[in-house]
ATP synthase gamma chain
Amino acid sequence: MGNNLKEIRKKITSVQNTQKTTRAMKLVSTSKLKKAEEMARQSRLYAQKLNEVFDDLVSKLHSRGLDSINSKYFLKSKDKKIKVVDIIVITSDKGLCGGFNAVTIKEAMRLKAQYQAQGIQTRIRGVGKKGIAYFVFNNIEVMDKIVGLSASPDYEASSEFIYSVIDDFLNDKTDEVIILHNGFKNMLSQELKSRIVLPFDLDGYKKEMESTNLFIEPDDEEDRVLEDLAKKYFEYNMYYALIDSLAAEHSARMQAMDAATNNAGELVKSLTISYNKARQEAITTELVEINAGVEAMK
């Protein structure tokens, strides 16, 4: 009985130490989340303004006819056959964040299967250790293995990466580029985001603008401005996806550590009850043995 009590005591101490760790990790994730959330908010405002200017310019050029847009970034005809699709899969470098990475990986595998069923080749470009590890373990070829960027987004590094993808598109090595990540929705939830960044589908733009505040002088500079804006669009969409994913990661880890802390608390309660019962049984047994000894001496 004494050994049993020692074992339970050891378990209680072990779970309490784990609870302290998970509670500390929750506090760290909460602190990091606030910073990441603010960064994501500021980046989202910039991205929205950039997209507005970009959409205005494309719509303005589109109103003159598709021939007025001289850029390889734009899809002018639905007749172009897609043969190769690049999927940029953003996951975290660290674990202990619940199903955060599993959701993204599951969607990546679904997209891969969907395209393959249509006879389209898919190429995975991995950003984040967890996603890369999954694909490598399952013998799925990964073109790029970028580690460290999802944990610490850097504008220059993300731009360098996305330009390597754009080069493949311009050199006809790939026909479509998708950025896939689990994004931040609020403190308690995340949402999966999948976006085709290349090519731009002109069917999504209105042929005529009712009103626009966009004026470019001289007019012959519009193509150059469009190219520059397109590059900024690629750079910032990649960078924003990394920031958005990081904020969502901290949110998911905060929830996971909160759940782990609560579960540890429940387990401590359960073990404490078991300990008290075992201790009560030991005391009762000792009293019975004492009484039996006293009776035997009479």
